[in-house]
Amino acid sequence: MSEIKKPVWREWIESLIVIALLALVIRSFIVAPFKIPSSSMVPTLEIGDYLFVLRYPYGFRIPLTDIQLLSKEAKRGDVAVFVFPEDKSKDYIKRIVGIPGDKVVYRDNKLTVNGKLMPLEQKGMRTYFMQDGGADVSGLFVENLNGIKHFVLRKQYSIRDGEWTVPKGMYFAMGDNRNNSRDSRFWGFVPQAYMVGRAAIVWWSWDHVKGAPRWDRIGHVIE
Q1: pLDDT 10s per residue in the chain (223 long)?
Q2: Do residues 222 and 51 make contact, with C-beta atoms less than 8 angstroms apart?
Q3: Measuring CA to CA, which residue among 184, 17, 34, 171 is closest to residue 100?
Q4: Residues carrying an active site annotation
Q5: Distance (Å, rounded) from C-alpha 152 to C-alpha 124?
Q6: How many Å apart are CA 216 and CA 130, to the nearest integer?
Q7: Which of 8, 89, 110, 134 is the one with CA 20 to 30 A from 122?
Q8: CB 41 within 8 A of CB 93
């Protein structure tokens, strides 16, 4: 008996359905793109950076829900994407500086975690462009966050001082641009269930001021 051959259009439709399902699974549970819209993470991340975000380091978050399977605790120093607690339609990206049980103190633009001051080493000044195209200048520092060294920007004054004890199942997140970031100092803690993923690598970057690619940032590993 001869085999009945499928119509070409049916083979195309079936192939497209399989590809779409694979893309949905990959985007929801393995890796997803993310674009940097603001200057709150300069100098680590620039406006116009396009990132790949790993979905699995903190567990698997079921899309459109607050359900997270196989939850894993974030680490201090992680650059994390999470659902914004004040508007669940938005995703934010910040650095995790406090994990459950930590006491975080931010005063005079200096960060203390569990009574230990996070050392800062000044590297000069840094000019950067904001979303509206305006320029700003801040001091450039290397911060040692319990062994995780990363760049931060800060001025001589701080925009929000305070003391916070991170509850169980929550995180304290801050932008690396300390004087130009609306973060946990303003709106509080990030629940574990809101954690989306960890930023991994810059795959494309567009300078919105010059109107040109930043070729030197492509392939930049995020730390």
Answers
A1: 456 666 777 777 767 777 777 666 656 667 889 999 999 999 999 999 999 999 989 987 777 777 788 889 999 999 999 999 999 999 999 999 999 999 999 999 999 999 999 999 999 999 998 888 889 999 999 999 999 999 999 998 999 999 999 999 999 999 999 999 999 999 999 999 999 999 999 999 999 899 999 999 999 999 9
A2: yes
A3: 171
A4: 40, 94
A5: 11
A6: 19
A7: 134
A8: yes
